[in-house]
Amino acid sequence: MASTDTRQGDPTPKSRGAGIPLSVGQRRHSRGYGMVVGWLKVLLPTLAVVLIALVIIWPYLEDEGRRITDTLTNAGQLISEHLEVNQARYSGVSEDGQRYTVTAETVLQQSVDAMMVAFTQPRADISLNDGSWALVTAETGTLDRETNVLELRTTVNLFHDQGYEFRTESATFDLMGGSAYGFDPVFGQGPFGYLQAEGFQATNRGERVQLTGKSKVVIYSTD
Fold first, then answer.
1. What is the pTM of this model?
2. In angstroms, what CA-CA distances link 32 with 3, 44, 114, 166, 220?
């Protein structure tokens, strides 16, 4: 069951389905299609914030995954037959001029040839071209260098300085395939209202994002 709600007006229309495709998921309200278009104008910029994790951070994490081996090989410390780097940090500028910094408390690789890299306290800060900034954090993460699959675990948060916040307990990113998914509850809030779902799925590097399971979007009326 999925639903969309507002703080004013008639009872919420409901529809059956596996989730809400956020790009097209708002249904006609009794006030008419024009009101729905107005809501989408509010929601779509919010969704763009969510997609930062897919279309902005994604390439940097992919690059970071390739750089980790060199970092560990050249500067790593052999501790009980594994390699560990503390206070890892990588900064750069994207092709469109947006500055970013990716950090981690620790980066651990069992050996130089190991495919799995583990992070603690991964964090990505992005300065956007419009002067705003966004932040993604998690407690732990792993990167499979062979499959380029990144998993973030435990308190995965996305913040934007215009008042948007999204959180879940886990998120898996296929860096090469351009898809992402999560099976834990998702919560989001911001000036538009709030949303919640039992999970999410994103494809084509975030061009399509879907809330899965029992989902709800509440939109604050601007009247």
1. 0.64
2. 17, 19, 57, 29, 16
